[in-house]
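=== Structure Prediction Worksheet ===
Name of assembly: unnamed complex
Input type: mixed (protein and possibly other molecules)
Chain count: two
Listed entries:
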Amino acid sequence: MAEGDEAVSESFAVDVQGVHKKFGALKALDGATLQVRQGEIYGLLGPNGAGKTTLIRAIVGLLAPDSGTVTVLGRRMPNLDVLRGVGYMTQQAALYPGLSVEENVRFFAAINGVEDGVKEALDLVELWDRRRSVVSELSGGMRQRCSLACALVHKPKLLLLDEPTVGIDPQLRVQFWEDFRRMAAAGITLVVSSHVMDEAERCQRLGLIQYGRLLAEGTPSEIREKAGTQNLEQAFLNLAGAERS
Amino acid sequence: MSPRRVAAITKRLLQGFRRDRRTLALLFVAPVVILGLLGYLIRGSAEPNVGVANEDSGPLGAAVTSALEQSSLIHATPISASGGDARLKDGSLAAYIVLPADFTQQAQAGNIAPEVHLEGSQPSQDGPVLQALQQALISVVAQRPGAPHFQATISYLYGGPHLDTLDFFGAAAIGMIVFFLVFVITIVSFLNERSQGTLERLMASPLRRGEIVVGYMIGFTALALIQSIEVLAFCLLVLKVHNQGSVLLIFGIEALMAIVAVNLGIFLSMFARTEFQAVQFIPLAIVPQFLLSGILFPVSSEPKALQVLSDVLPLTYAVNAMRDVMLKGADLTWSSLQLDIGVVVLFCVLLIAAGTATLRRRIA
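=== Predicted Assembly ===
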């Protein structure tokens, strides 16, 4: 890779340029372009089936785009070494049900080549006291928290969270967002996907996604301005409608 | 390939089994149940009940009857010829033999003509009945003055007269059980890894595909080896299955079979989406291999077309190797054993490559 190439994209934690991906006849990504700055909370918003998960999987290198480029932390994806600095929390709480909370977190630390940080991660999601509980016996919310701990135990620079707040109670959701803010303040870049519009206000910048491409990108107020409405939900509907017509 | 990351996969796998009592039971109780049953079935089986109706007016009939009663192949009891068919129907007899009134008379004219009535629906019982009758007739006829003397000299290249069906099946069953159970557990756990989404997470980590496959392989092979110790100890000490070879060599062949089973499981799990589908691979991938491996029917006696199929299946070579070692006392200097082990190793390599190659395809 050329030296200059890295320098250009270094300012962005994630740089996606014109990514297309087809599954059979379905255009899952249709020219998606987005840029996430270092240390910000970037909200990826869109209805179910808009391409959020596909986009995140393309960012993490699980999916090879048909065309277009994905650059993460200055490196073209797919790249295994970059993944050391990336944390990925899948939509479903992907954990080993037969293992305890601590064993799960320790495992994900180990495959990322880290040994410590387990207590720190479990403290952050307030599961240290339940570290010996077997995951299959945990409530859905606790699993989600454990899943988050697994994604951040190796202290990634970039955290990709695919609908982290689905299925958790409002109290925990507030707490999650506080955690996200704290992590962002510590210099971690977060990409959070959601289909809940009121979560959008908590992001520094937003990308509205529909039909596999971004309808708009900017701060919440920029997006409201562009759509000419005070309500983000309405803004989304306006922009999606404009796109279709 | 990082040993630490491979070790992490292996450790995680074994940690999971620690709390999974049912799977542990499958791994360590099932082999003893299966082999115990097999042993009891083969060694403890009762001889077929045979009725003997001696209507002979001469002395020969009585001599044949008493020879039949002494036979170890059947359990002979005297009956009357008229009730024979009814007893075949009600299942209390597998066969009855009638020695007609003119049996001695006919025999003197050179015509030995007993009647044998077989139940007939269970062919495996017919053999011993006919064999016992033949032996009885030969022994009786041989005692008569002027009769030709019949005495074959029998020598065994391997085994001996004490070798029984269990010795023959046992050697193959030891390997087969490990192969089968490891395959089932691998295909299901790898499928879980997919369906619970953890494989996606592993692929989004710095882990390499080969590290996942090797980590799995080490973990399951370790389990398989513990299982092998149990199976071998049970076969050799409790069932006293004939063994002429090195226990260490048997162990090595079992390890190879476990590696084949693990990688076959990983490979085939790519083609299943649910556990239900995975279980359906058993009749598809395992039963034909079992039938064609020579466990039940020697490969050399198979139809030519099937021999070709047997020749490309890994289990055939593994079963052959196990039998060579246990029944013939083969060691690594035997070229036939070198070939068998070489082929199994080749299959290991091929399946590892296939499993690794298909890993990414199905995750995307």
